[in-house]
Amino acid sequence: MGKTLVPDAAALHLAEIHTEGETVVLVATATGTTACCPVCGQASSHVHSRYRRTVADLPWQGLAARLDLQVRRWRCANPVCARQIFTERLPTVVAPYARRTARLARVVEALALALGGEGGARLLATLGIPLNPDTLLNCIRRAARPAPPTPRVVGIDDWSWRRGHRFGTIIVDLERHAVVDLLPDRAGDSAVAWLKQRPQITTIARDRAGVYAEAAAQGAPQATQVADRWHLLHNLAEVLEEFLLHQRAALREAARDAASPAGEAISPHDPGPLTPNRPRLGQERLEEASRWRHERLVEQYEAIRRLHAADADVADIARRVGASRRTVYRYRNLAEPPERKRPHRPRRQRLLTPYEPYLLRRWQEGCHNGMRLYREICGQGYAHGASNVMRFVGQLRRDEAAGQPAGAGARAKAARVPSARRARQGGAGAVGPARGGALPAPPKRSAPGAAGVPGPPADS
Q1: Domain assignment present for 310
Q2: pTM for this prediction
Q3: Which end of the chain is more exposed for a tag (fewer CB within 10 A), N or C?
Q4: Residue 397, CB half-sphere, CA atoms under 13 Å: how many?
Q5: Does residue 367 sit in the same domain as residue 458?
Q6: Mind listing the pLDDT tens digit for each residue in 32-63?
């Protein structure tokens, strides 16, 4: 019976088994005749005294087990040893100063590494080993970590110690799928120093940033640099999305052909898409891309609301939808889907804007020859074609034919209706007249030769 119940039958003799409440107690004594001093290593056979040591052992069918050890104190046979009296060591049974047997400690450590603190404590409680979750965490911290093998294929990228504030560099062993090291910053010098210490690296996977490319070339010139899988898929998705946005007409046509019954001929009088080969204007492309992205946001919003209504966890929602937790928190509190953000293209200054006051003044002085006006502003630095001047002169002629002041049509086109937000902020006067308001006053006429306004040629 003693060989099956005590941790080491060669070192212990089982003397008694009894129960105390819901605990099984095993009383055992050490069988060794000599012991070695832990300081000098001298063997001794002189017993000084005996004492009782209590340690926890593996449970019996859900009942806690306790091992009461009757061990001895020994006198050191070395007269010059600093420790004259030492306690008996049983390395195969229990470690020095430990409160659990070696076999129980191995079970606790394995469950702690597998399940963590809270989960491991719950399972151990059902097995009859009540332990605090913090005890399991301490076991994890004390566990000996095996030395990792030297990495050959590594991935390097930046990551944030604190999002938006402090960034570092993460290095991963791609063969073992384990983090190798964390560098304190994302500067190239740190990565170069780390790579130089490991000349056995043969392959480096990185993003397309130039910092890590230079670091890999300097720190590991023998390694082959490749683009990592995530950035390849991410860049492919961006390019594919941009390409499909430009092929919406072809996609709609293909979908219509697929939806039509088999064998049905397309009418030759079908107008089809208007001017399919004509390139779209930039603003139209931006509007189409904005509408498509808004559709994706609405689908994401509906999925988040549906999962939230089903009492799903925020982390699980973010993982399933593919969004950040901040987005999940924001969308679950919105009563309606997010509004579409219309693309804004900054208004560019017209080429003739610096010369319009001079052209208006010359027009009012009676010079209505477009080419003559073009030659005059070319002498003032205008370096573009005459077609802009001809269009401006044509607008002046149309204004006079309609009985309007010269330049009224050009100013009406240049006037900008303020947005609702700017109107609420009182900034309408800074950006243009409000709808139905008066147009800005024409530029003040200056005398010929005044500062900043050149006078007409002498032969005009």
Answers
A1: yes
A2: 0.40
A3: N
A4: 10
A5: yes
A6: 889 999 999 889 988 999 999 999 999 988 88
CB-CB contact of 82 with 48 (8 Å): no
Reported confidence tier of residue 229, pLDDT bands at 50, 70, 90 = confident
pLDDT value of residue 271: 42
Q: Is 16 in the same domain as 66? A: yes
How many residues comprise the chain? 460
Quickly list DSSP for 70-109. Answer: EEEEEE-S-TT-S-SEEEPP-TTT--TT-SB-HHHHHHHH
Where residue 287 falls (left for φ over 0; alpha for ψ -120 to 50; beta otherwise) is alpha
CA distance 402 to 314: 65
Q: Which domain holds residue 129?
A: 102-145
Tally of domains in the chain: 5
Is the pLDDT reported for residue 31 higher than 90? no
pLDDT reading at 275 higher than 70: no
The reported pLDDT for the residue numbered 426 is: 55
For the record, the structure tokens of 245 come out as 């946005």
* 280-320 per-position pLDDT tens digit: 456 677 777 888 888 888 888 988 988 888 888 888 898 88
Is 141 in the same domain as 180?
A: no
* Residue 220 Cα distances to 81, 101, 206, 224, angstroms: 54, 48, 13, 9
DSSP-based three-state secondary structure for 186? coil
Range name among 180-194, 195-209, 372-386, 394-408 with the lowest pLDDT average: 394-408
Strand ranges across the sheet with 153-162: 178-183, 166-173, 153-162, 203-206, 224-227
Q: Using the 8-state DSSP alphabet, how is residue 148 labeled? A: P
Residue that the structure tokens 């006079």 belong to:
400
On whether residue 341 sits in a domain, the answer given is no
Going by C-alpha positions, the residue among 372, 406, 403 that lies closest to residue 389 is 372
